[in-house]
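Good morning,

Attaching, inline, the backbone tokens for the sequence recovery test we're adding to the shared suite. The designed sequence is right after.
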């Protein structure tokens, strides 16, 4: 008999990175062969079309605006739930699962699965207003961390290392390889256009305006700062004819024919999947060594380079190496560097960790 596991999530738009991972779980044949997997969504999903393709044995969604009514629905679900595990992605849900488990003597294990960094100093400039409450988080029985940095943050908050499972995120193994441009150095950037804050695209542009040589940057993304970014590029002689805004494309990889490196200048992440995707195509990456995630993906000199957050002199030296063609990488080494995240390896890790928790 399959073991019953339900994922409880909140604040989903239907288009984010969390949704991508949830869809993988819901549609994974190997995972669903072992578990009876359901999805309970506490709040409305803006792009509800996603609900039809996310998989799962059952999907409990809502169209209710009232938080009280949605809370009642969640409580009734938890009272009836007799499965082995709840995987909760939002810290605000954890006190409810804890109370119901205690009052009704439930046997399920509660697993908190965060998809972002767990440090309030890191997140203080986050435009979404995320505040980490470890009083709520510690009500979970176990923890899934998508990066070793998140595991360190949990340990620093007093969580036992034995309660934490680092599972990363899944990506598909790519047959396609994107080779470097032999003529000019072609950089790519795939993220929200945010001049300050988490993505700090403005800091990257400030560095690039000092970069000499034959290079270009193709920017795939949109955001509130797109117009300001375009104006900034247009006003600078070294950027004007080198930075190309391609707009937001759901899947830009088929459009990218050549790339010498993917750039990311984040202040913080959880596990930046754009780095993993680039590496899976054989593209080296240059990323800030921000909390958390890049350290798990980037091995300097092997598949790219890391630099200290906001150390633009260090970044400039790295970029000059690419432009001057003073470095080379083995494409097979780059692709193999993220093999631990390939779907089959991820699924095996997910199954083993759940079984270890509910044994």
């Amino acid at each position: 008999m399959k073991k019953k596991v339900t994922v409880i999530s909140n604040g989903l738009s239907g288009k984010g990175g969390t949704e991508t991972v949830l869809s993988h779980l819901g549609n994974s044949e190997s995972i669903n062969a072992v578990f009876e997997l359901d999805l309970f969504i506490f709040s409305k999903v803006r792009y509800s079309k996603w609900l039809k393709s996310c998989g799962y044995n059952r999907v409990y969604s809502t169209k209710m605006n009232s938080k009280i009514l949605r809370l009642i629905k969640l409580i009734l679900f938890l009272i009836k739930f007799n499965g082995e595990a709840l995987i909760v992605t939002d810290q605000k849900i954890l006190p409810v699962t804890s109370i119901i488990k205690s009052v009704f003597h439930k046997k399920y294990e509660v697993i908190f699965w965060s998809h972002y960094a767990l440090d309030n100093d890191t997140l203080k400039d986050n435009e979404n207003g995320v505040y980490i409450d470890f009083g709520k988080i510690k009500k979970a029985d176990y923890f899934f961390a998508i990066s070793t940095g998140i595991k360190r943050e949990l340990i620093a908050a007093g969580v036992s290392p034995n309660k934490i499972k680092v599972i990363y995120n899944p990506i598909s193994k790519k047959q396609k390889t994107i080779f470097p441009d032999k003529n000019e150095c072609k950089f790519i950037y795939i993220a929200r256009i945010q001049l300050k804050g988490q993505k700090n695209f403005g800091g990257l542009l400030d560095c690039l305006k000092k970069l000499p040589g034959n290079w270009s940057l193709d920017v795939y993304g949109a955001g509130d700062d797109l117009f300001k970014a375009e104006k900034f590029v247009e006003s600078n002689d070294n950027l004007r004819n080198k930075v190309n805004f391609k707009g937001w494309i759901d899947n830009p990889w088929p459009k990218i024919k050549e790339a010498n490196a993917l750039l990311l200048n984040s202040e913080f992440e959880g596990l930046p999947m754009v780095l993993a995707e680039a590496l899976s195509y054989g593209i080296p990456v240059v990323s800030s060594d921000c909390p958390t995630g890049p350290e798990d993906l980037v091995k300097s000199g092997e598949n790219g380079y890391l630099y200290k957050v906001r150390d633009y002199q260090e970044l400039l030296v790295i970029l000059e190496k690419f432009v001057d063609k003073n470095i080379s990488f083995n494409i097979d080494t780059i692709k193999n560097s993220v093999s631990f995240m390939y779907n089959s390896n991820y699924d095996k890790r997910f199954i083993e960790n759940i079984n270890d928790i509910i044994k």
